[in-house]
Amino acid sequence: VTLARCRMCPLGWLGVAALCLGTLWAAPAKDRRKEEKPKAELSLFENLDLDNYDVTLESYGDILDLSNYEELYDYGDLVPKIEVGTLAPRPKDPKTLPELAESTSGTPNLQPPSSAGPVPPAPVPRQGLPSCVLCLCLGSSVYCDDAGLEQIPALPPDTAYLYARFNRIGAVRAGDFRGLEKLKRIDLSSNSISWADADAFRGLPSLQELLLPENLLTALPELPRGLVRLDVRLNRIPSAGLRLEAFRDLKQLQFLHLSDNQLDFIPVPLPESLRSLHLQNNNIQTMHEDTFCDSQEQGQIRRVLEDIRLDGNPINLSLFPNAFSCLPRLPTGRFS
């Protein structure tokens, strides 16, 4: 027996030694994996040029492609998961039930979730709210395009540019722009504006551009004298809807676009500053010889008035050759 025990001792010692060596070898391997993992993670960021990663409003569209936004971000996997069986079991001891009832008596009763989905919030009335709630305000510009507006919202006092296109605005009231002395551009294209108060735009000393195309206007209100561009195309304005000598005092007016209305004659007098006059697709049938040129002033040349459009009218321009003698270019229209 003693001899057998002596033979087994070396084998036991060999087993213990092998176990110790395996433990020592596993520890460095584990440490090596920990060291290699951060190196692998850091290698993912070596190709990023973080110094030049400057996202601005100008470069935003170049850096991010939002055309496939819905494909890139699938929010279905972010829905919180509900685990079943996580509620605590009801106590078996009936003595604990009154205490539980007392502790929860002050809490509100929670309704179980409905299978029909989340309840949408109550609609907020649009009218009467500040423009920066209904629209997008960036600096001195207010963007209200396609916002479902039925009237012009209250604007910040420093507003310089207003874009309220593609809405359902039906009228421009006298107080809509009151006190907005910095307002330079008003764009109300593609609305349902059928009338504007006579004083709606008169008290705007900085207004340069008034854009009202594709509306239902039948008359023009009084215009501010600093106006540079007036666009009222595609309305229903007859000649009777223009004030007498409506554009005489607009000494800075350069672009006057009145096409696709119901005008019977060319509105005169036209300011010397005018560069572009669009009157196509009206009902103009005649004109005076001094419509564009002063018949009393010999050698007059209106060099800046280079763009006159009278096409789409029943007028024959060849019957009025003296009316264009001071113009650098003949108007566009019918000459036969």
Can you describe this structure?
This protein has 336 residues and is an alpha/beta fold. Among the domains are: 141-236, Ribonuclease Inhibitor (Leucine-rich repeat, LRR (right-handed beta-alpha superhelix), Alpha-Beta Horseshoe); 237-335. 18% of the residues lie in helices and 9% in strands. The protein has helices at 2-43, 60-63, 69-72, 96-103, 131-134, and strands at residues 136-138, 141-143, 161-163, 171-172, 185-187, 195-196, 209-211, 229-231, 255-257, 276-278, 307-309. A nine-stranded mixed β-sheet has the order 1-2-3-5-7-8-9-10-11. Strands 4-6 form a two-stranded parallel sheet. Residues 1-6, 34-117 and 119-128 have low confidence and may be disordered. InterPro entries: Leu-rich_rpt, Leu-rich_rpt_typical-subtyp, LRR_dom_sf, LRRNT, Mimecan/Epiphycan/Opticin. Residues 131-161 form the LRRNT domain.
**Helix count from the secondary structure assignment:** 5
Tell me the fraction of residues in β-strands, as a range.
Answer: 5-15%
Mean pLDDT: 76
Class by alpha and beta content: alpha/beta
Write down the secondary-structure element order: HHHHHEEEEEEEEEEE
**Which sheet architecture does the biggest sheet show?**
9 strands, mixed
So what's the overall shape?
elongated
Helix content: 10-25%
Tally of DSSP β-strands: 11
Low-confidence sequence ranges:
1-6, 34-117, 119-128
Query: What is the rounded distance between the termini?
Result: 137 Å
